[in-house]
Design goal:
767 residues; alpha/beta; Immunoglobulin-like; Chitobiase, domain 2; 8-stranded parallel β-barrel; 36 strands; globular
Length: 767
């Protein structure tokens, strides 16, 4: 049987060869062992001649008695993978030198505990690890030496299972190599998590940070407090839809065991004292006000937090943590500690009394008291505490590990104090941001966090004294899910940046090279295809809009973030490998539906970008006397979509300068700006807005109706005559997907073709 990737390769094989010939302009490239697609890149590789071929007669040889039981488990793990793709059932022997894979724990190796030595010759493969975990990682490297089809879950008959002969000595730079998955904003299934654990194991990552609770959901079953999941695991979104999900304790155990088989430790995060509204909705008595509450259905920070002055609060949390400690055998429990507003504490009688009784300086001291008290409890249960860098406020708990997210400052401070640190600054390690130009990438919480910037991050800040840098344990990719509403989009944001994080944690800095990484990346992406991962492929960038107006002719110029070849069509058909190869800017002088896609070296296409190229006459200016200021119209009501305001009763207009009206959360309704703007010359002008609808000269040019919009990727262009032009801008104060429109930038952006979009200055706006 042939799986979907192989089918693609077989059907497109001839076309792909021809395409690559076009790209290389007939120049042949000799492949050699230096083209190995290993991620993370090993510390040291010596290339040899020849290959080892895996056959149905290959056997495992497990050497040594001391670790035999654990090594046999590793053999079982890899046998399952090998059998799926090859059909081979490899036997296990005590002795053998030919056509064997020999594995052994060798504590005398001068390597770190997770290190290994790998030798591949034509007759055998030998993997020695300082520990069994090192052996596991050595075999992961062996799997990457075999063709990518080794990752298939279906038998493939047509592959010669050869691994090139090499000698590898390898060990990680950092002991903590992690990934965070937030399931407290959008729930993800057990199967999805297992899938990511499989990829993490392939990449030699060893920490899965499971963000289980937040203001928006509580996702872990606690037997003593059933309302945490009965009430806290169900969110009613602003538009009335329901989002729910939690893990039973049996499912938690299942994931923990699955991770352990892959040498991954699961670190649970139970947020406190802030980000607690889901829990407080179920048990409001542990708040400062007593509630009632409802689960937060928008993103951001909630003022209602656990009451630090109530001993019953600590009893509640300790009972929760007691169950959590049993479910997660790892040493660390993450308690959050971040973004805790102290407004309620400052006026709460119980909290104020606690500050007096404990001789605390202020509410920051109260947070420190809270953290230290929880830490003491965790230590009594054989656990150590980890928290975000806010746990530094008011004094750091003695044995705490700091996870620095607000830049590197918190991590530098903590390491200098002698505390262990995990560097995960949002600038580099928050991979819920977009991966390219805003006009082509899907909506994300931020823009332009590129693969190369993630790859080049160095956790060991030079601001930490050399003798203290051992306190930097590593870093992790943080996958927050405010905008990652589906498994597919979560993976789109995760990959391939997770591969970059894996390499920066494992590979010595002197060995890292981004160009080399990108070359090796292609081989790993083929492996991800066998796991059905929806990874990001750089999209064609260039024109600032998907509607490009022109008056005489226009030029379309494209590039992408990894300099991949691109193919295009001019007739509205979908591009294929046999479509025209993009080589130079495209000149168009007639209406065209232009479609273009990037192409990976193994023939897979990116999503297609469609650009409507339209010939227009200049929209005529409006000759009218106007005054400074805009008309602002208002209508009230619980509104969500443009059609909701069709028959609305509008009041106004009020005259306002620019777009300075700032509605409040409670100001439900819609707001409509009307007026004029002036352009200095005839030309093609580009527009964008984060509002709901933009009209120019009497026609709708942009619509974000019903969309989750933070950074608008909806752009258009229009031919405008020099002078004044009318506009109408609609804003509906709603909550779409947890994000409030009132948080968006007011107004619209405009720019002459070739210039950067910006808000129009007040002096060109009038009514």
């Amino acid at each position: 049987m042939v799986d979907f990737v192989s089918k693609y390769n077989i059907i497109g094989g001839v076309i792909l060869v021809l395409f690559l010939m076009k790209v290389s302009e007939g120049r042949a490239r000799t492949m050699n062992n230096t083209d190995l697609s290993l991620i993370p890149l090993p510390k040291n590789i010596v290339y040899q001649k020849g290959y080892f071929e895996l056959t149905d007669e290959t056997s495992w040889v497990v050497m040594g008695e001391e670790s035999r039981e654990e090594l046999n488990k590793i053999v079982t793990y890899f046998n399952r993978k090998i059998q799926q793709s090859t059909g081979y059932v490899l036997s296990v022997k005590l002795f053998g030198n030919e056509n064997v894979i020999r594995i052994k724990v060798d504590k005398t190796l001068k390597l770190k505990d997770e290190g290994y030595r790998l030798e591949v010759s034509s007759g055998r493969i030998t993997v020695k690890g300082k520990t069994a975990q090192g052996v596991f990682y050595g075999i992961q490297t062996v799997m990457q030496l075999f063709p990518s089809q080794i990752e298939s879950n279906l038998k493939i008959e047509t592959i010669a299972w050869k691994a090139p002969c090499v000698i590898i000595n390898d060990e990680p730079v950092y002991p903590y190599r992690g990934m965070l998955l937030d399931v407290g904003r959008h729930f993800h299934s057990v199967e999805f998590i297992k899938k990511q654990l499989d990829i993490m194991a392939m990449l030699k990552m060893n920490r899965f940070h499971w963000h289980l609770t937040d203001d928006q959901l509580w996702t872990i079953e606690i037997k003593k407090y059933p309302r945490l999941t009965e009430v806290g695991a169900v969110r009613r979104n602003a538009d009335g839809t329901i989002h729910r999900g939690f893990y039973t304790q049996e499912q938690i155990k299942e994931v923990v065991a699955y991770a352990a088989e892959r040498y991954i430790t699961v670190i649970p995060e139970i947020e406190m004292p802030g980000h607690a509204l889901a829990a407080l909705t179920a048990y409001p008595e542990y708040s400062c006000t007593g509630g009632p509450f409802s689960i937060r259905n928008m993103w951001g920070v909630e003022e209602d937090v656990y009451c630090a002055g109530n001993d019953k609060t600590f009893e509640f949390l300790e009972n929760i943590l007691s169950e959590v400690a049993v479910l997660f055998p790892g040493k660390m429990i993450h308690i959050g500690g971040d973004e805790c507003p102290k407004d309620r504490w400052s006026v709460c009688p119980k909290c104020r009394k606690r500050i007096r009784d404990e001789n605390l300086k202020d509410v920051n001291g109260l947070q420190s008291y809270f953290i230290r008290r929880i830490e003491k409890f965790l230590l009594s249960h054989g656990k150590s505490m980890i928290g975000w860098d806010e746990i530094l406020e008011g004094g750091l708990a003695p044995s705490a590990t700091v996870m620095s997210w607000r830049g590197e400052k918190g991590g530098i401070t903590a390491a200098t104090m002698g505390h262990d640190v995990i560097m995960t600054p949002s600038k580099w390690m928050y991979i819920d941001a977009g991966q390219g130009a805003v006009e082509v990438e899907p909506i994300a919480i931020d823009v332009g966090k590129m693969l190369d910037s993630v790859y080049e991050y160095d956790p060991a800040s030079e601001k930490i004294p050399k003798e203290l840098r051992h306190h930097v344990l590593g870093t992790q990719a943080n996958m927050w899910t405010e905008y990652a509403t589906t498994p597919e989009y979560t993976e789109y944001l995760l990959y391939p940046r997770l591969l970059a994080v894996a390499e920066l944690n494992w590979t010595p800095k002197v060995k890292k090279n981004y160009d080399s990484f990108v070359q090796r990346l292609n081989g790993l992406l083929m492996r991800l295809d066998y796991h059905h991962v929806n990874y990001h492929i750089p999209l064609p960038e260039g024109p600032a809009a998907d509607y490009v107006a022109f008056t005489d002719k226009t030029v379309l110029n494209f590039h992408n973030s990894r300099n991949l070849p691109m193919v295009y069509t001019l007739d509205g058909s979908e591009p294929t490998l046999s479509s025209t190869l993009y080589r130079m800017p495209i000149v168009l002088d007639k209406k065209t539906v232009f479609k273009i896609a990037s192409v990976l070296p193994f023939g897979k296409l990116s999503p297609v970008r469609t650009i409507h190229v339209v010939k227009e006459k200049y929209s005529p200016r409006i000759d009218k006397d106007t005054k400074v200021g805009l008309n602002l119209w208002r209508t009230e009501g619980d509104l969500y979509y443009v059609h909701d305001v069709k028959d609305a009763y509008w009041t106004g207009p009020d005259i306002v300068p620019g777009f300075d009206f700032k509605p409040l959360l409670e100001d439900k309704g819609a707001y409509c700006y009307t007026g004029y703007f002036e352009v200095p010359t005839d030309g093609i002008y580009f527009f964008s807005t984060e509002m709901d609808e933009l009209w120019i000269d009497g026609k709708v040019v942009l619509s974000n109706d019903g969309k989750l919009v933070r950074h608008s990727c909806t752009r258009t262009s229009m031919a405008l005559q020099k002078g004044k032009h009318s506009f109408r801008l609609l804003m509906i104060n709603n909550n779409i997907g947890g994000y409030l429109r009132l948080w968006n930038e007011k107004g619209f952006r405009i720019a002459l073709e070739g210039q950067d979009l910006s808000l129009p200055p007040n002096e060109i706006l009038s009514h």
